[in-house]
Design goal:
Elements: E1 10-15, E2 22-27, H1 29-42, H2 44-48, H3 53-67, H4 70-73, H5 92-106
Antiparallel strand pairs: 1-2
Helix pairs in contact: 1-3
This protein binds zinc ion.
Length: 107
């Protein structure tokens, strides 16, 4: 199989610190379908209250994952050069939020 960037439906992108290549963190369409199905089976109560698997998937992979730099947490490897995601690969969004929190704490 030819190497290529993961084709994600939910998630975000980060750049490898070694080779500068763009990488994707998140779920493919098929993985997302599975996640949504499992979520709705395992969270019947929330679903009854209006929560949806799509909503949970969107929140976890499009919002929370990026804020937490999940690709670093999970030591994801660059699809091209195999370098493990280092601290230098933090997303702008995660850095921004951290700076914001530091700012609030200092005041
Ligand atoms: Zn790389």
């Amino acid at each position: 199989m030819q190497k290529q960037i993961k084709q994600i439906e939910y998630g975000y992108w980060w750049n490898c610190a070694e080779c500068g290549t763009e990488n994707a963190y998140g779920l493919t369409e098929a993985e997302a379908e599975e996640y949504i199905k499992d979520f709705e089976i395992n969270n019947a109560e929330e679903v009854a209250e209006g929560e949806t698997g799509e909503g949970a998937c969107d929140w976890n992979y499009n919002v929370i994952a990026e804020e937490n730099d999940e690709h670093i947490e999970e030591q994801q490897k660059c699809w091209k050069c195999d370098a493990v995601a280092s601290k230098e690969t933090r997303t702008e969004k995660a850095k921004f939020l951290d700076a914001l929190i530091d700012n609030i704490v200092q005041k």
